[in-house]
Each structure stands twice: as structure tokens, then as C-alpha cells.
Amino acid sequence: MQGGFAIPPKSDLARVNDKIRSPMVRVVGDDGNQLGVMAISDALRMAREMGQDLVEVAPNAKPPVCRVMDYGKYKYQQSKRDAMAKKRQHQTQVKEVKLRPKIERHDFETKMRNARKFLGERDKVKVTVMFRGREMSHPQLGYELLQAVIAELTDIGQVEQNPSAEGRTITMLLSPLPQGAKTSSKSAAEDE
Q: How far is residue 156 CA from its own chain's centroid?
């Protein structure tokens, strides 16, 4: 509540039929044609004769603009558009790929396929190299492994956070290339 009264939901902000307060309104037909400025009672009568609703679309105009339309159908179409927009959104996640310094070539390729798939799905990839026991005495092996990862995924991803050592792990964060950059690198490869 704000100022002692409840704010109505955003979808119900449009005034419809008898809720329109202005005595004079500019009326637009359901086909988009101007019907002129008239008294609210005449506009409501005209809308009812057409079997439609009178909906205030521009309340701040002088006089307010109202449109003759089927409000129920309009709200249904609006909810469908909102649902489609929500369906197309992608929530970026951080996926993790864990490696060891003594990883075999085939295992490395499998991990890179997974990382490539994650980047292709527009997710970020956290690459972690884990050390055990005496492996910690050779951290350069981990950094070399991360450089190999960067070289392998340079066509689809970019380094967002450089490799950094934290205790017994070295981590790095990769993010997908912007949409335009990926297509330009593909076209450059095709030109060669």
C-alpha cells in the first residue's frame, strides 16, 4: 500500500466502459479509424451497439483517447504475448567442468564437448582444476591445462575471469561469445 490506498495490478490500469471518468473523449474505432470527439454517454452507447467495450488507451491526452474493442479478447491476446516473451527468455546459469592435472586426452575431449554444449546453450562455464597430495607442488600443470581449455573453446567462448588459485584448486570462468561475434568468426573461417 502506498499513501493509504492499494495500487491496482498493472494489467488492470486501463479504464473500461463505465469506469472512464472524463465527460468528453476522442473515440477510435476497432479498425483504427477516428470516430471523433464525443460525450462519454454517446461513446458508450455506440460501443454497446457494436457489441464491443470502450477502453481508455491514452488517459493523459486532452481529451482522453478511448478505443472501441473487445476488451476480453485484448486481455487474452496480451497474456499470450507475455507468455511467449517469458518462454523465449533464457536465464543464464553457471555450469562447472572439473578437471585433474593428470587427465587423459579422451577424458579432456569429453569435458570440452560438455563445456562447448554449455556455452552453446548461452550458459557460463566454470572450469576447475583440482589438485591432490603432491600434485600441488606443480601448479604450472593446472595453468597449462587451463590454457589448453581456452585454446579449445576460443571459437565459442571467452575468458570472463582469468585463472586464479584458491587453496587446492585453480578456477577460471568462461562466458559465451556475443551472438554477433560468433557468426562473424564462423564467416571468417568459411572465407579461408
A: 20
Closest C-alpha to 38, from 28, 50, 52, 51: 28
Res 90 pLDDT > 90: no
Judged by DSSP in three states, 7 sits in: coil
70: domain CATH number?
Answer: 3.10.20.80
Buried b (16+ CB within 10 A) or exposed e, 10-38: eeeebbbbeebebeebbbbeeeeeebeeb
CATH number for the domain spanning 156: value is 3.30.110.10
What is the pLDDT of the chain when averaged over all its residues?
82
Q: Does residue 85 lie in a domain region?
A: no
Range of the domain at 140: 94-191
Q: Are residues 111 and 136 in the same domain?
A: yes
Consecutive H or E run containing 133? none
Considering the domain architecture, whether residues 71 and 109 belong to the same structural domain is answered as no
Question: What is the count of structural domains for the chain?
Answer: 2
Over the stretch 8-26, which tens digit does the pLDDT of each residue have?
A: 344 456 777 777 777 888 8
- Which residues are paired to 174 by β-bridges? 125, 159
Q: Predicted confidence band at 4 (pLDDT cuts at 50, 70, 90)? A: very low
Q: What is the pLDDT of residue 2?
A: 45
CA 184 from chain centre, in angstroms, equals 23
Instruction: Judge if pTM exceeds 0.85.
Output: no
Specify whether 102 is located in the same domain as 183: yes
